[in-house]
Amino acid sequence: MATTKQKILLPAILLANDLLDGDVVFWTERGWSIDPAEALVAGDEAAAIRLQEVAAAALARGTVVDAYLVDVTLRDDGLPVPNHFRERFKIAGPSIRQDLGKQAAFAHLRGRA
Amino acid sequence: MYRYDQFDEAFVRERVAQFRGQVARRIDGALTEDEFKPLRLKNGVYLQLHAYMLRIAIPYGTLSSVQLRQLALIGERYDRGYGHFTTRQNLQFNWPKLRDIPDILDLLADVGMHCIQTSGNCIRNTTADHFSGAAADEVEDPRPTAELIRQWSTMHPEFDYLPRKFKIAVTGAARDRAAIRAHDIGIQVVRHPVSGEVGYRLFVGGGLGRTPMIGKLVRDFLPKAHLLAYLQSLMRVYNLEGRRDNKYKARVKILVHEIGIEEFRARVEAEFAALDPAAIAADPDEVARIEAYFAAPAFATFPADSQRVVADRARDAAFDRWVETNTFPHRQPGYAAVTVSLKPVGGVPGDATSDQMRAVADLADAHSFGEIRVSHHQNLILPHVRQDELHALWTGLVAAGLAEANAGLITDIIACPGLDYCALATARSIPIAQAISRRFGSAERQREIGELGIKISGCINACGHHHVGHIGILGLEKSGQESYQVTLGGDATENAAIGQLLGPGITAEEVPDAIERLVGVYLAHRHDGETFAEAVRRLGIEPFKAGFLAPQPAEAAHAAA
Asked: B472: which strand partners?
C-alpha cells in the first residue's frame, strides 16, 4: 500500500499487520509495537517519507504485511487517532466485541472507535 | 453422509503437508508475501483487519456431529472460542495465528474437512438447499449432485485458473431455498413433465456483488448423466471468453449479459455437441457409491402428526411459538427438520461459541442421526428430528441459548462480518443487524409482521446478499462516515429479484426507524395472509419509497430535540 506517489497527509503514523499473528503493529522509535500509544508520529513530510522507507524495507524483509501510512489527529493525551473510521476499527478491534482486539488490552482504546 | 475414501484422505493430507512447508518458508523469509499470498488463499487463509481469518469448507452445508465437535475444539484451542457461519454455508475463524494454521488443517483432515475451494479464482464450495434429503417438497436429494460437482471440480486442471471465482448451487425442490439464481450456475433437480425422468434445469449468469444479476435459464431439461459434460461445455465457453483483463467484468454474469443468453446457450450447446457425454460422465459405479452415502437414515414409521407435540404445544406457549417458526415439513411422516437459530435478539448473526457447537453436536446425536446442516441464512439445521422428541430438543436448545423462535422472521437477519472484521468492508454490518433485531425483538411483534428477510452487506461485494433481501441494506462510506443504502423488493427464491433503491443513504442511527416505516407501510396495506414480499410485489415500490423518505412526526420531533 505504501508508495511514495501517494499524497502524504500529516501527521501520520506507520502501521502494518504482524506476519505471525496478524495483529496490528505500529512503528516506534524502537521498532514495531502492538501499542498505538507508542507509535512514532511523523509531523512533517520528511519524517513521513522516512516512515515510507521503513515500510518498504519491512515489507521487503517480510516481518510485517500490508504496511502503510495513516493520517491521524493527536488526542489531548498524545494518542494518535486515525482520521478514517476504517483504521480506527482496525486498531481498536471489533466494535461489537469489546473483549477482543487491542481495545481489550489497552484501556486508552476503549469505547472510542 | 459422504466420507472420504483413501484417495481423498491422501490428497488432503498431502495438501496440508505442502502448506506446512509453505508457512515455514514464509516465516523464515524464503517466500515473500507476494509469493505466499496466492498459496495461503488456496488454503482458505485471508488477512483481515485485526488478524488472519481461516475459512473452512463445509460442502453443501452438511456436517456430522463429529465434525462440528472438531470445529468447537479448534475454536477453543486456536481461536477465541467462537466461529462465524457464512452465507456460503462455510465457517470462518477470525483469530488464528499463521504458525498454528497447518496444525488446524491437520485437525480438520482428521475429520474429513479442509479449506480447499474457499478462495481464489476456482469453482468454489458447491452449496445446496439446507433441507436436502429432509424436505417434503423435494424431487430428489441434491447433495449427491453437489458432491459429484465437488469431486469433478476439485483441482480440475482446466478450471483451476478461471477469470474469476465461480459459484454453483443446487436445489432438489421447486421452492428454491438455495438462492440458485444468485449463483454463476444454479441447478434445480426436476422431473421431466412427460417422461417422468429425473434430470436438471440449469440457470447461468446469476450473481450479486457490484453488478447484480438474476440467473437466466440456459437448459430446461438435462438428463442426469449429461451433467458433467454440460458443465464442462459451459465452463469452457466462460473460460475462453471471460474477461481476465478486468476483474469487474470477469464473472460469467457479465459475459451472459453482454452476448445475451441465446448466444451463450448456442455456444454452450455447440461445445456440448462436440463432446462425448459418456466419456466425461462419472463412472455409474462411482455415482452409485456417492448416492449410497446420502441414503436416508433409518427412519421409523410414525403417524404424520405427533399427538405428543400437540399436547406439548398446548401446555407451553414458548415451545409452541418455536415449533411454529423453526420447524419445517419433513418427507418422512412423524419427523421434522429444525432450524437452530444463530440469531438471538441483539446477537451477532451466524456466530456460535465452541460450547454451543458442542451442544448442537450432542443434540444432533440424540435427535437427528448425528447430522447438522449450515444454512446460507447463517443458521444451523437439525434435518431429521422425531416430532415426539421436539420438546426435549427444544429444552436442550434453550439451555444452550439457541432457541430463538425467529426463523424467517424480521430478526432472522443475514449480515456479513463487515468492518468489524473484514479488510474489504466499507462500513459495519453487524451493529446494524443488532439494532434492528433489538427494535423488533418482541416475540409478538415479530409474529405480527411475519415472514420478512433483511440482508445486510458491509460493502459492494454483497456477501450479505443485500440485493436479494426483501429489505436490503448496503453499508458504504460517504464523506468520511458510514452510510447505508436501503433497497426493497429483492428475493432469493424461485421468484428471484434484485431489490430497488429507496432513496439516498442514511446514517446507522436512522436505519431502525427507516425499517420501522417500511414495516408500517406493509402493515397498513397488506391483505389477509399476505407476506411482506407478496405485498411489495402487489403494491410496487412507490408507497414504500414515500414511507421511507417521510419521517413520522414523532421521529422528526425526536431528531429536532
From this structure: B455, B487
